[in-house]
């Protein structure tokens, strides 16, 4: 942005040095640009005033003008609350404060007129609002209502009396002087074609709308801008690669044929065959492959990866496979090694816990070309890991890794970038795929291997635990094994473990004499592995675990998955966990345990799980409920950093933005046309801020 927008925030009217420091620390707002781009996440309609007689409990909030009739301190020490009776011409209600009581005792003047705003609740024969927003009625707020923009804030800021109203005032001050400095970022032709309002209007109407219409126009315009630049970047990346990056040609099939003829453990599904073919086409093409493989849990992605690796090895190159966790890497290693041994292909594993002397051996074998396949975790990214000729990179469970990590693996080969294959753990919705992986070609394994029985999924309340235990006992008697999973409470590892151990003890009591395993994230990989193996061999029958078993565990005889406090898991995670059972010939079950108090969202999550096993459907519901930031756990947040667009709702805008970005880059790859000047200028501006733009332009 121009230097105006680089102005330090403390120079804004209303913001002093001390407040600026709070904005720096709590919200990362340092400059005018930061503030103007600090978008509100919702707007409250203060254009309407209500009468007390009109209010009802299903109102999200009510805004009322009235008088305080009386103020009373109720309850004993420690439980005190301040209760005011509030009256307008139609009826009366209560306003209640549990905090800042002495402040409000002074502030509330009997008989003075106030505007209040808050969520009405029916309680004890009265409507009441707890901690309402309350202002003395003035000429300002009397006549006309307004929209209050709501900004995400922290508790610390609120303690400094910096709330959404304060932020609004500062932003208004800024908007009053910023107008001449706001540059248009969208070509005029696009603005005209899609009736997008100019950028300066959009910013004003988003922060300070006077009507829903203005707000809507502002949002549409800014969402388009955000998605347009997101797509422009990804498409540019993929065009650059397609045009500029040659790839090694792999077309020999010696090992591959041997594998197909003598060692294939089962017939591939049609979906697997199709995807293998798509990959083979890429590897023969002479262009570097960048392909996303989507497939539900259990759809058989691993063998597709192995077959692709054989193509690379047949072509005289090496392959590596990166997984997000040690356990998953281990699992892949064990599976791949079985195949590798049949073919005489050397495979090793490298993780954070690999011993120094093993590492040295691996590093050397990689350089000599003796080692063909390396499986591992993030440890693969280290600079010291160098290959003789890395031809194919497979990234499993990709959406936990960022674009930057993808790039790091690219650079492991000198002459040609390696071909890249990215596999998702579970399907992700189309919009998310477009924004996260818009630079990749897509393949879908949309068919399950034959003979899988549907998993019976039920929801049970904690109160019915004894019945659930009975059921588990019956399954154990049939020789089955059972997982019992406890949630990870991320704020506190200690609590987390306590939870798990309490669970372990109660299971131990309920199932005397049944051998138990326990696995959690704090264990040493060696010990984890030992316990996993015991369970896998059938030496233990019950596996008590945290979500570390989410990925990578393959125990066909385990047919029951009990998920404790299921309300704490996201949908994708529940789906992942459920995918651990249903791998053998027996009927499998998934039991979701919760207590009684469930939010609407939780109910929807659980119902979705009970009703469907379709991962594509589940991911869509997950996106709608949680937004992309939270999908599949914390690791992913920040990956799709969207300020205003909502991937669950804005699919249409995304589609158009993508089409337009594509059209423009095809027509004018270097953005030299006059109409595209705003794009060029905008990219130049953000280039300084972001590394990834530098890489591609
Ligand atoms: P995911 O896609 O979740 O990674 P996996 O590759 O782990 O799935 O495969 C799940 C299970 O299905 C494995 O036990 C695998 O051996 C088996 N499998 C994969 N493809 C087939 C197939 N075509 N026919 C039968 N079983 C298969
Ligand atoms: Mg897998």
Textual characterization of the structure:
- With 697 residues, the chain is an alpha/beta fold.
- Among the domains are: 96 residues, Beta Barrel (OB fold (Dihydrolipoamide Acetyltransferase, E2P)); 158 residues, Rossmann fold (3-Layer(aba) Sandwich), CATH 3.40.50.300; 157 residues, P-loop containing nucleotide triphosphate hydrolases (Rossmann fold, 3-Layer(aba) Sandwich), CATH 3.40.50.300.
- Helices cover 42% and strands 17% of the residues.
- The protein is built from 25 helices and 22 strands.
- The strands form 4 sheets. A 7-stranded mixed sheet has the order 6-7-4-3-2-5-8.
- The C terminus is likely disordered.
- The structure holds adenosine-5'-diphosphate and magnesium ion (MG).
- Summed over residues and divided by their number, the pLDDT gives a mean of 88
Helix content: 40-55%
- Radius of gyration equals 30 Å
Oligomer: single chain
Number of helices: 25
List the ligand species. Answer: adenosine-5'-diphosphate, magnesium ion
At CATH's second level, what is the architecture of the domain at 254-285 and 299-424? 3-Layer(aba) Sandwich
What's the β-strand tally? 22
CATH class of the domain at 254-285 and 299-424: Alpha Beta
């Amino acid at each position: 942005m121009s230097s105006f927008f680089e102005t330090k925030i403390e120079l804004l009217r209303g913001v002093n040095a001390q407040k600026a420091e709070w904005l720096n620390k709590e919200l990362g707002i340092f400059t005018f640009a930061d503030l103007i781009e600090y978008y509100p996440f919702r707007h409250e309609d203060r254009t309407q005033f209500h009468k007390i007689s009109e209010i009802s409990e299903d109102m999200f909030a009510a805004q009322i003008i009235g008088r305080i009739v009386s103020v009373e301190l109720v309850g004993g020490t420690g439980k005190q609350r301040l209760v005011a009776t509030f009256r307008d011409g139609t009826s009366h209600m209560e306003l209640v404060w549990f905090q800042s009581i002495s402040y409000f005792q002074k502030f509330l003047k009997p008989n003075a007129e106030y505007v209040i705003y808050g969520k009405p609740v029916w309680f004890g024969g009265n409507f009441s609002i707890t901690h309402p927003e309350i202002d003395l009625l003035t000429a300002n707020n009397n006549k006309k209502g307004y929209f209050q923009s709501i900004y995400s804030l922290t508790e610390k800021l609120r303690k400094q009396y910096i709330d959404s109203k304060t932020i609004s005032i500062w932003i208004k001050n800024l908007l009053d002087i910023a107008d001449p400095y706001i540059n248009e970022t969208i070509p005029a032709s696009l603005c005209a074609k899609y009736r997008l309002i100019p950028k300066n209007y959009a910013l004003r109407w988003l922060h300070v709308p006077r009507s829903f219409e203005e707000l809507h126009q502002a949002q549409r315009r800014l969402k388009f801008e955000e998605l347009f630049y997101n797509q422009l970047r990804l498409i540019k990346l993929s065009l650059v690669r397609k045009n500029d990056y040659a790839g090694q040609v792999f077309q020999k099939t010696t090992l591959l044929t041997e594998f197909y003829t003598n060692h294939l453990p089962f017939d591939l599904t049609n979906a697997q065959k199709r995807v293998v073919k798509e990959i083979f086409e890429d590897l023969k093409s002479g262009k570097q492959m960048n392909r996303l493989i989507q497939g539900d849990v259990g759809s058989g992605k691993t063998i597709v990866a192995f077959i692709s690796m054989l193509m690379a090895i047949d072509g005289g190159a090496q392959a590596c496979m990166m997984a997000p966790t040690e356990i998953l890497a281990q699992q892949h290693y064990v599976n791949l090694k079985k195949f590798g041994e049949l073919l005489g292909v050397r495979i090793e594993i490298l993780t954070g816990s690999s011993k120094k002397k093993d590492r040295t051996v691996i590093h050397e074998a990689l350089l000599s070309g003796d080692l063909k396949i390396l499986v591992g975790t993030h440890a693969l990214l280290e600079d010291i890991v160098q290959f003789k000729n890395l031809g194919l990179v497979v990234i499993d469970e990709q959406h936990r890794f960022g674009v930057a990590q993808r790039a790091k693996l690219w650079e492991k080969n000198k002459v040609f970038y390696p071909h890249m294959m990215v596999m998702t753990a579970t399907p992700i919705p189309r919009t998310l795929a477009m924004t996260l992986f818009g630079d990749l070609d897509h393949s879908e394994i949309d068919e399950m291997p034959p003979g899988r029985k549907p998993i019976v999924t039920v929801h049970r309340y904690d109160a019915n635990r004894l019945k659930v235990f009975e059921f588990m006992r019956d399954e154990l008697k049939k020789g089955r094994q059972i997982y019992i999973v406890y949630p990870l409470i991320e704020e506190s590892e200690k609590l987390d473990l306590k939870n798990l151990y309490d669970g372990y003890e109660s299971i131990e009591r309920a199932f005397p004499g049944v051998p138990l395993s326990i696995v959690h994230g704090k264990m040493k990989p060696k010990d984890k592995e030992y316990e996993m193996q015991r369970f896998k061999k059938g030496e233990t029958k019950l596996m008590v675990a945290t979500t570390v078993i989410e990925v990578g565990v393959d125990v066909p005889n385990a047919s029951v998955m009990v998920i404790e406090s299921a309300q704490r898991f996201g949908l994708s995670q529940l789906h992942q966990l459920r995918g651990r059972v249903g791998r053998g010939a027996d009927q499998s079950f998934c039991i979701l345990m919760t207590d009684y108090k469930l939010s609407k969202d939780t109910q929807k999550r659980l119902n979705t799980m009970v009703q469907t096993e379709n991962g594509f459907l589940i991911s869509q519901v997950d996106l709608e409920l949680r937004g992309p930031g939270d999908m599949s756990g914390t690791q992913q947040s920040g990956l799709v950093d969207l300020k205003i667009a909502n991937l669950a709702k804005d699919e249409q805008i995304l589609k158009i933005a993508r089409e337009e970005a594509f059209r423009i880059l095809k027509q004018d790859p270097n953005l030299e046309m006059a109409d595209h000047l705003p794009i060029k200028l905008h990219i130049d501006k953000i280039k300084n801020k972001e590394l990834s733009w530098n890489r591609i332009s």
